[in-house]
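Summary of Year 1 activities. Much of the first year was spent building the evaluation harness for sequence design. The harness presents a backbone, in tokenized form, and records the residue chosen at every position. We chose the following record to illustrate the format because it has been used consistently in internal testing since the harness was completed.
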């Protein structure tokens, strides 16, 4: 069966399965296809604007996302405070013997400042038959947010099912874990320094 998602088909189990640390994962079927969207969702202890600054910056994905060997923003157009479009090249670092897979994608970004942010992409070219998905970041409070990641991909290379399932079973929660770590570090950097007590 070639129709397994490459990075994320964790969720053949019941929809809404709960992983560790409140990370929710499930699959969403697509009409006419045997490859569903794989989805992971969780709360993040950081403002929505901080989380958005991470997921909307593909230049940093090798640092902020798991299993990314390198990434580069090729172009950007529009207003970052409302809507803009980027073209990004991303290389996924996959286990032997699959090797690296690269894609160039166009992403449309929608911004409701301090409320809701969305990044939705489709592939222009690359080592997949298709690669599409989205990030949605919603503010829950001034200091917490909810992140939802959706992905649907199919590699051009035939890959054994067991190998994909093994890789995929741990990937979706790791995306949230890595994002939480990056958001915590960035939020800490954004805080003004606490003055030393007098004396």
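For this record, the design step produced the sequence shown next.
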């Amino acid at each position: 069966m070639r129709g397994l998602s490459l990075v994320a088909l964790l969720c053949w189990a019941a929809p809404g399965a709960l992983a560790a640390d409140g990370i929710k994962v499930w699959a969403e079927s697509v009409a006419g296809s045997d490859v569903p969207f794989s989805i992971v969702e969780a709360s993040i202890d950081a403002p929505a604007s901080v989380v958005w600054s991470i997921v909307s910056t593909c230049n940093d994905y090798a640092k902020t996302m798991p299993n990314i060997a390198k990434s580069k923003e090729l172009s950007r157009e529009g207003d970052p405070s409302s809507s803009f479009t980027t073209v990004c090249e991303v290389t996924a670092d996959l286990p032997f013997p699959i090797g690296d897979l690269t894609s160039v994608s166009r992403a449309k970004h929608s911004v409701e400042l301090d409320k809701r942010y969305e990044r939705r992409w489709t592939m222009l070219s690359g080592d997949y038959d298709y690669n599409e998905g989205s990030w949605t970041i919603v503010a829950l409070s001034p200091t917490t947010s909810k992140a939802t990641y959706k992905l649907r991909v199919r590699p051009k290379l035939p890959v054994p099912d067991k190998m994909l399932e093994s890789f995929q079973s741990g990937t979706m929660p790791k995306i949230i874990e890595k994002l939480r770590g990056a958001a915590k570090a960035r939020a800490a950097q954004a805080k003004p320094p606490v003055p030393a007590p007098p004396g």
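Residues 127 and 169 are 22 Å apart (CA to CA). Quantitative recovery figures across the full test set are reported in Table 2.
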